[in-house]
Amino acid sequence: MKRRRLLLLGPALGWWAVFLVVPVGLVIAYSVFQRGTYGGVVPTFTLDNLVRAFDPLYLRVFLFSLRVAVITTVIALVIGYPTAYLIATLPRRWRTPVLVLVILPFWTSLLIRTYAWIVLLNGEGLINHGLESLGLIRVPLPLLYNEFAIVLGLVYGYLPLMILPIYSSIERLQPELREASADLGGNPLRTFLRVTLPLTLPGLAAGCIFVFVPSLGNFIVPDLLGGGLSIMVGNLIQAQFLKARDWPFGAVLSLALIAMMGALLFVQAWLQDRDRRQAIDA
Amino acid sequence: MNIRRTHGTGRRALALLGVLALIVAACGSAASPTPEKPSGKIVVSNWDLYFPEDLIKNFTAETGVEVEWSKHTTNEDIVGKLDASNGNGFDIVFVSAPFAEGLNNRGWAEALDHGKLANVGNLAPEADKLGYDVGNKFSVPYTWGTTGLCYRSDLVTGTPSSWNDLLKPSAQLDKKITALATDRWLMLPALKSLGYSVNETDEAKLNQARDLLIEAKKHLLAYDDTTFYSKLVSGEALLVEAWDGWCNYGITDNADIKFVIPSEGSDLWSDTMVILKSSKNKAAAYAFIDYILRPEVAKTVVDLTLYKVPNPKAMALVDAATLAAYPNLAMTGAELLKGEPERDLGAAAPTWARIVAEITAGQ
Amino acid sequence: MRSWAWGRRLLRAEFGLVVAFLYLPIVVVVGLSFNASGQPTAWTGFSLDWYASVLANDALLQAFRNTLIVGSVTTVIATVIGTLLALGLERTVRSSLLDSLVFVPMIVPDIVLAIALLSFYNLVFAGLLHLELGLWTVILSHVVFDIAFVAVVVRTRLRNFDRSIEEASLDLGANERRTFFNITLPAIAPGVIAGGLLAFTLSFDEFIIAFFTKGTVETFPTQVYSMIRFGVTPEVNAIATVVLLISITLVLVSQRLREADV
Questions:
Q1: How many angstroms separate the CA atoms of A251 and A80, rounded?
Q2: Which of B62, B193, B276, C79 could form a disulfide with C196 if both were Cys (CB 3.0 to 4.6 A apart)?
Q3: C1-36 as b/e, with b when 16 or more CB fall inside 10 Å?
Q4: What's the rounded mean pLDDT across residues B341-347?
């Protein structure tokens, strides 16, 4: 048992120990050191950086990011789940090709597609011109450089991360389960809510995390589609490392973000565990 | 004397001496390469589309030195990379002026020996007086220019002449203006309109500028560093903050676009070449920079980028049609020197980052 | 079964809208790549100039080749390690704290991972071992986060996995290895494939970690990002279209091969 554990967990944990824990640990350790006059890190112990992190400015940016990430995740879920469901219930030979069809756009650079969205969404862009020529609007709609555009860009960028894990967990459900429920008089909605949804909760949770976490830390979309008018946590952290060259403070903000998301994930895993144990006991 | 024996030992001794001599010669030449001839390979980090097509090819053909062109998208990216690798990895980096000074402050820039740059005399006299590196001790300017307002003269009533035209726009310009996104140039209009330095470190003054910019943001379409000129061309924006060379890209597509330096004054930006101390092939690095200082080579940079180069002989080679189409190319060094060069902010960098975060944070 | 049909139709309509949403920017990219002017402001005629330009652009093609190498190698390594991890977590770990550890690579901000790894590589590889950074260091870095994504996706398949067929196999005399390869792996294959697809997609388009850890070579995202100086040039749209065509071709070919097998 012990040997099997080593074989299964060893490679991943080993890789992470060397290429994740050590390097990132070192950088995070800088949070208690001082910034050198011209950047760089001076090994003088200080708690100043930690104190600075409690400034309301950073809280404001974080809350905005949280809001955007939550909205993005909800929309991605509402759009992604039915999509994954349909693909997973297609005849077997169609599943992988259609899945790949959905993933295919993501093999062209996200940057290129984001710029294409700018072409589509801007005041003189294709969507506005199209709607104007159809007579549906008279003044261009503000579709770009605002929160709408940021959310759209994030949903667009992370949708496959929602679809893939949900697909994976729906696909392994036996269709007989659903048919059985239908035969026993449950309507499709009931079947879905009582049978399918609970059984696919792990995939759903995974999809939400896959979308929520990167959305929170994203900096490209607020810059390009948001016009740099509302920064998010990702921009803030990037600015510390690259613009202010203030690694200690960047480390503090990163630590705060990692800790918060870590706590969230831990709670999620614990809840799932508790559900599982309850289901087993029941 | 046994002749045979003497011959034998003599021949062996001679052979040994010969081999020894060969070894010494080989080691000797390896240990002290002829100092004048550059060879080998250098790694240069520069923006993409910033070297004329044939520059590297011609340089390699002439000198035999291979140049590997590593591309960076922004100053912050390449400096961040150098921060993380402790100044290693490249022979030459092309960075904007304040970042060059920053590299020098960290001790990573090689102190330049102008004796190794035969063409350094081609630099304009004003190029020696740039505040961030007087005397070009650790950097050599590649291109230079200033920042101003770029606008559609056919669609904007009146002629913009002040930074306040950007910060407090007329109703016609509401949501049809953009500002530059990089911190140093984001703050520039406010600092200059208030009469402050572009290298301001006084917090009270910075806060004043900040409040001005937070107000101005309400009328802004977006912060844009790269596509502001195409917004002018499409009409999405009517007035933008722009680097002079970039405004020329707009002029290429639409002759009604004009560039103006606001009356409150502006900056003097320059993109510079820095040899890193960690470079293992400094001879070749010097040769490369020296090559770029040739008038006919620098002139190709002007043709490609529509920027000015601090090389009067090169600017004289630029054809009249180009100068006529892009008026700001004709600015002289003396005129440029009226602008204030950006310098490394040193210990004030975190303060600036915080101020910019306050401006760009959402509601 | 009438209510099923109605629901099914709704589902299909939703799927159609999603596909339209996903491909709308693609249509723009492909369209612009054939536009003679290259600019979205005006269509000046059909042109293949940009494609000719791409084929002549050695740097771009080389960068694309590099990204394929990085993506494939990363995917293979990460899929193997990630699947093992998923099995290990599902079957040998009881604590939910350890369970959530699999997400750690995901919650570290990209920029932190990027500079942390570069600092580390500079110290150990460049400094101690005198090895130059290159595609191999990008691969090492990409595997870090890809393992996590693969593991999570495969795990969704392992939850409530019916182990009785495995037990049956063992009872019938097959050893553990055989059981794994003949019984378990085929059963979780769709999850492994989905995880692998995800890993490849993530590595293929990853910019910031690649930029910091690549040394002096270029990957496709870093090359494209650097070309974006003036906004997307028509060349960039052309190569994006080419990538799309290659991907579609690969998919059709693999589909044909699979059908030939069956």
A1: 34
A2: C79
A3: eeeeeeeeeeeeebbeebeeebbbbbebbbbbbbbe
A4: 93
Q: What is the pLDDT of residues C139-190, one digit of tens each?
A: 999 999 999 999 988 887 787 677 788 888 888 887 877 888 888 888 888 7
Helix axes C58-92, C234-261, angle to 10 degrees: 50
Largest CA distance in chain C: 72
Question: Across the interface, which of C118, C216, C227 has its CB nearest the CB of B70?
Answer: C216
Placement of tokens 């250098």 in the chain = B42
Q: Name every residue whose Cβ is closer than 8 Å to that of residue B321 and which is 6 or more positions away in sequence.
A: none
Q: How far apart are alpha carbons C262 and C249 in whole angstroms?
A: 20
Tokens of B49: 């589309």
Q: Complex ipTM, two decimals?
A: 0.86
What are B29-73's pLDDT values in tens digits?
444 444 557 889 999 999 988 999 899 999 999 999 999 999 898
Per-residue tokens: B8: 């034998």
Kindly indicate the confidence band of residue A181, based on its pLDDT and cuts at 50, 70 and 90.
low
User: Is this model's pTM higher than 0.80 or not?
Assistant: yes
Category of B175 on φ-ψ map: left (φ > 0), alpha (ψ -120 to 50) or beta:
left
Residue with tokens 């009582």: A194
Helices B183-193, B349-360: crossing angle, 10 deg rounding: 80
CA angle in degrees (0–180, nearest 5) for C61-C67-C72: 130
- Tokens standing for B300? 């190709």
Q: Choose among B284, C114, C140, A12: nearest CA to C131.
A: C140
CB < 8 Å to C133, chain B: 89
- Please indicate whether, in this complex, the C-beta atoms of B361 and A241 are within 8 angstroms of each other: no
Quote the tokens at residue C192.
């492994």
Within 10 Å of residue B259's Cβ, how many Cβ atoms?
22
d(CA A156, CA C237): 18
